[in-house]
């Protein structure tokens, strides 16, 4: 098969990626820099001293292979370490450097987050490294970082500074950076709850071996209902990414079309950039031709088959709820009336059930218990519509964050049975 040609200009790709990093609050107005090394050996890089929240394509600088500079501004002051990394690792074609708070915290403590917290983070982040401190912008800093990358590292914590990641493309480097930051944030939150549980090699292999086998078919012309569901799914997946409820490399969202068919997000595509054509229609043992359904598609299918009232499902990895999934700390929704009304009691699913027995996973969900925590794998939420499911996901994550914050203040007070009974009667809860 012919490799897909990359058609986005480096100026546009750097501008768009920096906008996303800044919008996600993973860097500051003055901090961070991105670069791409093209086929000619020229390095395109974000400029020095220009507002990261307001970059234009004209602001991006090109440093030619011969050292000449083409641009309205000087290149980033960190250009020396970008150049040093490219020289040390010919396979790297793009670099992300930024100062996301969680990873800066690890850099201050001279630690590297353990990405075995979560299978996707471990897979995407690659080999981790730690580069000793040197003055920002200095040749010594470039030498320190390049030496760490030369050892085969892909994601590197900079002592008392921030993080640098590399990839074969800027899209890949961004995914790696986002997954690394997600792991760091989740680990910080989980450490506030108790002893953190990490995955061993056998656990990681379970996730890696998961596959989805569907026959291919050409669906009939899309009905208005299908078209509307495609629009809704794309809208809420995009919103979920921007609200940090989903990450670009992981998570799945689906909506039931009829008794045997549903739409689901694809695998190996950036969640925030999905469009209606990317979604995959699954019907029985068949999936839409030319597309790969999410690896969780069989789990979605089993839930739809067991629970006719479920109209939409999301597997997601919001930081606070995922923190609960990596510890044995109880996630108590009997703390806020809205949380109990929307979620009821949230069950905990032992690790690996979603990989080895999808029908068993469906048993952990019911109309009276529409959400569950998947050990070391985020959460699953169901609902009566795409909107209802997304709303419950928001409530779940907000509740998890509130409970973690409350634990830092004092003892968490759960609502007594009399209040729960009152809520059940007032909202007709079964």
TrEMBL record:
Keywords: Lyase, Metal-binding
Domain of life the protein comes from: Bacteria
Keyword Cytoplasm: no
Domain Class II aldolase/adducin N-terminal: 12-188, 231-404
Keyword Ubl conjugation: no
Pfam families: Aldolase_II
Matching PANTHER family: 3-OXO-TETRONATE 4-PHOSPHATE DECARBOXYLASE-RELATED, FUCULOSE PHOSPHATE ALDOLASE
Name by which UniProt lists this protein: L-fuculose phosphate aldolase
Organism, as annotated: Novipirellula caenicola
Lineage: Bacteria, Pseudomonadati, Planctomycetota, Planctomycetia, Pirellulales
